[in-house]
Amino acid sequence: MQVPLLDLKAQFATIEDEIMDAVACVLKSQVCIGGPNVTELERAVAAKYGCAFAVAMSSGTDALLSTMMALQIGPGDEVITTPFTFFATVGCIARLGATPVFVDIDRRTYNLDPALLHDAVTSKTRAIVPVHLFGQMADMDPILAIAEEHGLAVVEDAAQAIGATYKGRSAGAIGTAGCFSFFPSKNLGAAGDGGMVVTNDPALHRRLVTLRNHGAQSKYFHHYVGGNFRLDAIQAAILLVKLRRLDWWHDARRRNAAYYNARFGGSHIGVPYIAANACSIYNQYVVRLKNRDELLDWLKAKQIGCEIYYPLPMHLQPCFAYLGIRNGCFPEAEAAAQEVLALPVYPELSADMLAYVADSVLAWMPSAIAATAN
Ligand SMILES: Cc1ncc(COP(=O)(O)O)c(C=O)c1O
Known about the structure:
The protein has 374 residues and is an alpha/beta fold. The protein is built from twelve helices and 14 strands. It has two domains: 8-243, Aspartate Aminotransferase, domain 2 (3-Layer(aba) Sandwich); 246-373, Aspartate Aminotransferase, domain 1. It is globular and about 65 Å long.
């Protein structure tokens, strides 16, 4: 049997007719940029997740970048975030000339540890960017409390967490703004790049709409230096079809995760820790173990897709060497990078496939344990 980490063809097969109709409609209308599908997607996402405004963007990266541009973050500013994230979170801070300031992660959730946040705030801090990693939201209340105390913006990087909740509140809806990614591998994935910013702040909303279109408030009159951060109408039409299935897909991922949790209970495999006040959408199902690389090789030999998210924390990336942060500064992020492994959790996995993955994981013995047993 072969089990890929993600099988988008299997998903497409379940919605092919609707997607083809939606794409044909856009092509026949020849409204290719903006238009009714983009507006409808913004309205639907804002309503579903309890936000006043949504601005569709060309990618999750551009959602983060334009939000930080709208907040006028730039040279001389510091932005606090986690070192254990996808590059875009930190790349956007650096691209604006601001300084990324890292705070280590909570060992259990892999999200920014709010207990360490206070010491990272300086007079230059402008914003905090918590990342809701793997589909579970960061511990937002203490983050929001520190932000309020110091007058900081909170930009939720909810790229992996659309539909996740924390104390019943939706990802993206409780900070100053929240940024989603519609990269194809996300729970709500386009057929290409896409993203969105959600916010309850009318002024921020107006600025984002302008920045998305080269900073023009009316055609050819540019109030800010913005960019082309627009979402294609075809992507919006596809995303609208998928949005109708999203809750079902989240549920299927949660069922798959529960199955693995039950199978791995009591074994040497560490299963994801989901805080009691959080509901994960399991964009990734990530196990943790000391001999991770051995398990990875074993599963690849069994034709099971698995991946390391992420093998090198941001403070150790060559492009951020100028920050002068050494190995050892963020021990939890560094340990996680050595020990995590994502297994297939996508909704269309069959019972046989799930069982094959779980059986294969459990059939593997770390060499250290095997050596002791001999
Ligand atoms: C945590 C995180 N932030 C930002 C992004 C950037 O999103 P995109 O790939 O849509 O630009 C991603 C997705 O890849 C992500 O996982």
